[in-house]
Specification:
- The chain has 140 residues and is α+β, with helices and mostly antiparallel strands.
- The protein contains four helices and five strands; from the N terminus they run βαββαβααβ.
- The protein has a five-stranded mixed beta sheet, with helices on one face.
- Helix 1 packs antiparallel against helix 2.
- The longest helix is centred in the middle third of the chain and has 18 residues.
- The radius of gyration is 16 Å and the shape is globular.
Length: 140
């Protein structure tokens, strides 16, 4: 990971809007989503972005601006090069495993991508689209 960008918002819609704007603004990857029920029962959502330093900076700026337009931003920050302990002891618990071209990780586990795509196509018994979110890594 070259740089780590974080955008913390109140509410899921605000976070999704921030992630959408950030991902469209620069060549970055959404690596994790952290959801926390905070004071007064509010949902705090932090999106984690990764890429080169300039791209992450641009993405965080764009995501923060869009999130402020939609709702409330608690904080936004870019760490140019996270310390090894941050990567190994904190973030590694929430990052998806690397996959091969065949959709399996180096330890033989199947990639979540096919399941995410299949889940997006599923409908419930009433014939309406499923509202469950794809299995992005979460930090709790």
């Amino acid at each position: 990971m070259q740089a780590l960008g974080l955008i913390e918002t109140l509410g899921y819609t605000t976070a999704v809007s921030a992630a959408d704007a950030a991902l469209k603004a620069a060549d970055v990857q959404l690596i994790a989503v952290e959801k926390v029920i905070g004071v007064g029962g509010s949902l705090g959502v932090t999106i984690h972005l990764s890429g080169d330093v300039a791209a992450v900076g641009a993405a965080v700026d764009a995501g923060k601006a869009e999130a402020q337009r939609i709702g409330t931003v608690i904080s936004a920050h870019v760490i140019a090069k996270a310390h090894e302990d941050v990567n190994h002891k904190i973030l590694s618990r929430f990052l998806p495993s690397k996959t091969t071209d065949a959709g399996t990780s180096s330890d033989g586990a199947k990639s979540a991508a096919p399941a995410i795509l299949a889940e997006a196509d599923q409908t419930d018994q009433t014939g309406t689209a499923s509202t469950s979110a794809p299995d992005l890594p979460e930090i709790e």
